[in-house]
Specification:
- The protein is mostly helical.
- Helix content is 73%, strand content 0%.
- The radius of gyration is 19 Å and the shape is globular.
């Protein structure tokens, strides 16, 4: 019982926040579909827990947090070793920061056993990069500043928040991942291509809600009409997918293990599923798919 409690303390603490309204089950189903082998339990848990926390942070920076709270959270993560009773300016910041620290410690401890080295500094850097860029977008929105499309995409491919989901998971695939690989241009390119695809897919499906909430979006930043913008962004998405696939199958000159490449590609496919027709985190289509897989028997033709 103590093991289960410690593994899920992040989720239990975050449920204290009154703006938790998304379905965390989606976070686990995507992990289970990607890492089905029993020995990949740590990979599934890392993926699911990080997914859930990124959703909470996105809501916090977009809507729920005041500017003072957003700045304070970034400062706490920058310092890392803080007295939460003195340094956190609100209960929301305290809960989120403690949840993040618990999660990084859990993943760091587990990953160290897999990697025979500490990766905690990398985990902190991933989260810090995300929330710093989330803060930049919050400033843009609240001060009514309009970035260029290039500035938006350069920032937005990180704020789509795939870094904390995908990158820590790569430490749990049963292979040693050196700092040389993690810091390589090949690794970064695959992350950027995958994340840019995610950013644009998300923007296509959520632009109405983002516009109503006063948040930036690639559709509203486009100089043409809505239909023209969507068509252009879909072309960019296809280009990024093709470029990512070329890196996945590349052998000559590659230093990123194929198992890691496959995770980038798997997330690319998850994004296509989640955002194929709607915002997969807030609508019911994914839940319907999961129910169909679990409860609906295969027909004879499907078995062929």
């Amino acid at each position: 019982m103590s093991t289960i409690t410690s593994e899920w303390v992040v989720d239990n603490r975050l449920y204290e926040l009154n703006f938790v309204r998304h379905r965390p089950a989606y976070c686990y189903f995507s992990a289970a579909a990607t890492f089905s082998s029993p020995e990949l339990s740590d990979a599934r848990i890392s993926w699911a827990k990080n997914s859930f926390l990124t959703v909470i942070l996105d809501d916090f920076f977009d809507v729920e947090g005041s500017m003072d709270e957003l700045v304070n959270l970034v400062q706490c993560v920058e310092k890392w070793y803080v007295n939460v009773d003195d340094d956190c300016c609100s209960e929301k910041v305290r809960i989120i920061f403690l949840a993040l620290k618990d999660l990084v410690k859990w993943i760091g401890d587990r990953a160290a056993k897999h990697q025979d080295r500490s990766v905690t500094s990398h985990l902190i850097a991933i989260w810090l990069d995300l929330i710093r860029r989330e803060l930049r977008e919050a400033v843009w929105s609240r001060d009514k500043l309009v970035p260029t499309m290039d500035e938006y995409i350069e920032n937005g491919y990180v704020t789509v928040a795939l870094g904390p989901i995908v990158l820590p998971t790569l430490y749990f695939l049963g292979l040693k991942l050196s700092e040389e690989v993690v810091n390589s241009s090949e690794y970064q390119s695959m992350f950027e291509l995958m994340s840019t695809q995610g950013r644009l897919l998300n923007d296509i499906q959520t632009y109405k809600r983002e516009f109503e909430e006063g948040n930036l979006n690639a559709i509203t930043l486009h100089r043409g009409g809505k239909e023209e913008a969507i068509e252009e962004l879909k072309n960019v998405i296809n280009e990024k997918r093709e470029q990512l696939w070329r890196l996945v199958v590349q052998v000559r000159g590659s230093i990123v293990p194929r198992a890691c490449k496959d995770v980038f590609w798997s997330m690319s496919n998850v994004l296509d599923l989640f955002y194929g027709t709607e915002d997969g985190y807030t609508e019911n289509s994914i839940l319907d798919i999961v129910k169909e897989i679990i409860y609906e028997p295969l027909s004879p033709t499907q078995c062929l």
